[in-house]
Specification:
about 180 residues, 9 strands
Amino acid sequence: MHLREELPSDRETVRNIHLRAFGDHGRVVADLVDTLRDTVTPGDGLSLVAEDDGQIVGHVMFTRSLLDAPRRLVPVQVLSPLAVMPEHQKRGVGSALVQRGLKVLADRAVPLVFLEGDPGYYSRLGFAPGGDQGFRKPSLRIPDGAFQVIRLPGYETWMTGTLVYAEPFWRHDAVGLRDPGA
């Protein structure tokens, strides 16, 4: 498996991965990726793909958000989304993408990476519940266990507070869970 930064020529394939991996929510996630892609700049954010025999089979995106800390706003990253083609899941593709991304971000002195996701999956990669570490989630619709963070070497103990998602997450209504019966 080969991991590399996403290229402009990968866009349709990456979109298809999210459509397939997220089922009924695939369109929202794929549209979010298309919008977030414009916020990824050299040195700020990261979009990685995994290739298997020359075919793109996975994608992860890290984008800039803010931590509203007592001292000042702190630029942080949000891991969202992560997707792997269904036929390539449970083979370490997602884990490899996340680990590579975290290494790159640590080398850039990013202090914290947040996400919404399955604690059973992401805890294996070093993520832990954010609420237990002095962080507040940006929406009450995010289940407590799903709001997770990993501290990278650039983290300092005063960096606590509320995560403020970048605007595209709100525009695409891609924060937390909606009550389908409401």
